[in-house]
Every structure is written in structure tokens, then in C-alpha cells.
Amino acid sequence: MKPALVVLAAGIGSRYGGIKQLDKIGPFGETIVDYSIYDAVQAGFEKVIFIIKESIEQDFKEIFVEKLQDQVTVDYVFQELWMVPDGMMVPDTRQKPWGTGHALLMAAEKVHGPFAVINSDDFYGRKAYKALADYYFNWKETEMNKYCMVGYRIKNTVSDFGFVSRGICQTDNESNLVDVVERTHIERLKTGIAYKEDDKFVAVDENSIVSMNFWGFTPSFFEYLRIGFEAFLKNNLENPKAEFYIPTVVNELIKSGKGNVKVIDCQERWFGMTYKEDREIVVKGIRKLIEKGVYPEKLWG
């Protein structure tokens, strides 16, 4: 079965200093997500669902909808702070989105089969999309809890310009995910890669598998998200910085035995735009891939 692609594109981009999901980095104004969609279409994805903020709707339509309408089915939904369960009031101190888990929950009514989830500002590589599409090629509706994740080596995912967030993973001998912990401050130090916890740095093996928010799910995952988000809000509604992450729900499913997540090991090098300084690296990376013939000069010619 051909999967859908859900694109997380509602983030504020505070460390980047702008709306990075709309930043034009290709020779004809292409964004990173243009290249992601191109790769997904080549791999057999048949629908793209964007999760955006209402404030960028017009810009989003101008940049994506018209040029993609002949390439793939396009739809979108909004993620806003006020979109919480009935009876809950968002405190005035809350300024940022509720996190990736909340964002994905907004797409529940648009997805009817297996789907992939990606960040809009991360370049994953075409092999990753092909591997995930192949994983769901013979999917049956009886396999509702058949999930997967594209895993990257942490050494291939760290920015040169500051800290990043990654889900550090552990797998068993059959490449099943047994643990994933979201670390919100990972950086490359002179002594190697480490994450920060309680103001102390903890070293990480550079070949450790991390989640880059490239997940494969089926519609059953939305019910787990809904339950998890309601529990999260009961405990964190007054915390202005708390976020509800996809890996948190995944980890709970694994520990409870309710779901299984196969890890697809990806050796490709990630690049993305966490910081403004990352932009030049991304532009040069895309240019090299064009010169190698991976992409045409004009992506949607």
C-alpha cells in the first residue's frame, strides 16, 4: 500500500531566527521540504499532509500548493495553542506550540492508511523514503500496530553551530526499538558528542542510533497520541516550556508491549537548518547533489 507523508511544519524556529520551513535554498527557490517531497514521490508516496500554523497559510499556499498539485495530492491542517481537549484552558504564559506529538495529532482526520512523519527542516535522503515505503508495501489493516522508524547515526546528525534535539535509541538484535529518550541538548564537544542533563554533559557513542522524527505509523497511533496528550496536559498545563513529543508516546507503547517499532538503519548523512549558520551548508549540499545528477536543476520543472 502506498503511504502518505505528514510534514511537521508548524514550528516557530526560535533558534533559526525565522520561518525556516519556507526558506528558499534551491537554485529556483526550492525549500528543504521540496526536496523531501520529491524524494517521497520518487519512492511511491501518494499524498502529502502539511501541519502548519494558520499565520503562514497564505505564504504556504503560494510556495507549495500550486507547484505540487500536478505532482502529488496535497492537504494541510493547523496546529495552534488553543487546540486542546474540551474543558481545558491554555494559560497566558504559554507561547510556544505543544510539541511534535500534538502537531501530529492534528492530522488524525486526514490519514487513512500507513504514513510517514518528517520534519520540514530536515533533509533525510532518498533511500530513507524508499526503505519506509517498502516496509509498508504489503501492509494489511490487521497490522494496525506495525510501526517503524528511520534511524540515523548521531555523528551524521549534529550541527556545527550549536546544540540539537535528538531521540537517542536502543535496539535489540532484530532491529526492534526497545528504548528512545528525547534529549533536547546534544552537541559536539572537543571530547566528542554528548548530551546535557542537569547541567552536566554525558558522552554518547558517535555511532549511536538516533531518531530524526522520521517515523512510520498506521492510523491506530492517533488514539495513543490522544490519550497521551490528555495525560500530558493534566500534568504540564501550567508549565510554559513542557512539550509533548512523539518519542515519548512511542516509548510508552514499547514498554507496555502495545506496539512494535522496527528500526530502519540509515547510513546517509543528514543535514538541516537548526541555526541560521546551517543554511550555507544546506545550500552547498543541495548544489553537490544537483551536480551529481540526484536532482534536476529545477526540481518542479
Notable characteristics:
13 strands; 301 residues; eleven-stranded mixed sheet; alpha/beta; two-stranded antiparallel ribbon; globular
Give a structural overview.
This protein is of the alpha/beta class and 301 residues long. The chain is 27% helix and 27% strand. It contains seven helices and 13 strands. It has helices at 32-43, 57-68, 100-105, 126-135, 221-236, 246-256, 278-291; strands at residues 4-8, 47-52, 73-78, 115-119, 122-123, 146-153, 164-171, 177-189, 192-197, 200-203, 209-217, 260-266, 271-272. The strands form two sheets. Strands 1, 2, 3, 4, 6, 7, 8, 9, 10, 11 and 12 form an eleven-stranded mixed β-sheet that branches. Strand 2, helix 2 and strand 3 form a beta-alpha-beta unit. The protein is globular and about 50 Å long.
List strands and helices in order, with pairings.
Elements: E1 4-8, H1 32-43, E2 47-52, H2 57-68, E3 73-78, H3 100-105, E4 115-119, E5 122-123, H4 126-135, E6 146-153, E7 164-171, E8 177-189, E9 192-197, E10 200-203, E11 209-217, H5 221-236, H6 246-256, E12 260-266, E13 271-272, H7 278-291
Parallel strand pairs: 1-2, 1-4, 2-3, 6-12
Antiparallel strand pairs: 4-11, 5-13, 6-11, 7-8, 7-11, 8-9, 9-10
Helix pairs in contact: 1-4
Briefly characterize the structure:
This protein has 301 residues and is α/β, with parallel strands linked by helices. The chain has seven helices and 13 strands. The protein is 27% helix and 27% strand.
Task: Specify the biggest β-sheet.
Answer: 11 strands, mixed
Integer average pLDDT = 90
* Helix count from the secondary structure assignment: 7
Rg over CA atoms, rounded to whole Å, is 18 Å
Ends apart, CA distance between termini: 28 Å
Note the overall shape: globular
